[in-house]
Amino acid sequence: MRYRELGRSGVRVSEIGYGAWGIGESSWVGATEDESVRALHRAIDLGVNFIDTARGYGESERIVGRVVRERVGDEVGVATKVPPKNGVWPAPDGLDPAETFPGEHIRRSLETSLRTSGLDHFDVLQFHVWNDDWVGRGDWLETIADLKKEGKVRLFGVSLNDHQPDSALALVRSGAVDSVQVIFNIFDQAPTDALLPACEEHGVGVIVRVALDEGGLTGRITADTTFPDDDWRNRYFRDDRPAQVEQRVAAIVADLGIAPDEIAETALRFVLSSPAVSTVIPGMRTVRNVERNTAVSDGTPLTADQLAALAKHRWQRNFYS
Question: If you average pLDDT over every residue of the chain, what do you get?
Answer without folding.
Answer: 96
